[in-house]
Amino acid sequence: MQNKTWTDAALLEHLQKAVYLELWTIPLYLTAAYSLQVPGTNAQLPPQQVTVRGKKNPKGYSPKFTGEWAPRYDRFPSWIAVNKPVKLGPVNPEQMSLLAAIETPEPKSDGAPNGPQDAYDSIGQFYKAIEQGINQRWNELYQPDADHRQKSEFANPQYESDDYTRFSSTIGGDSRTALKQANEVLQAIVGQGEGNLGPVIDSELRPEDANDLEDQFSHFARFRMVQAMLKFGGPLKTYPTTESSGLAAAQQQLTTGLTSLLTALEKGYAGDDELDLGSMWALPKQIVSVWSAGGVPQF
Question: Does residue 270 form part of some domain?
Answer without folding.
Answer: no
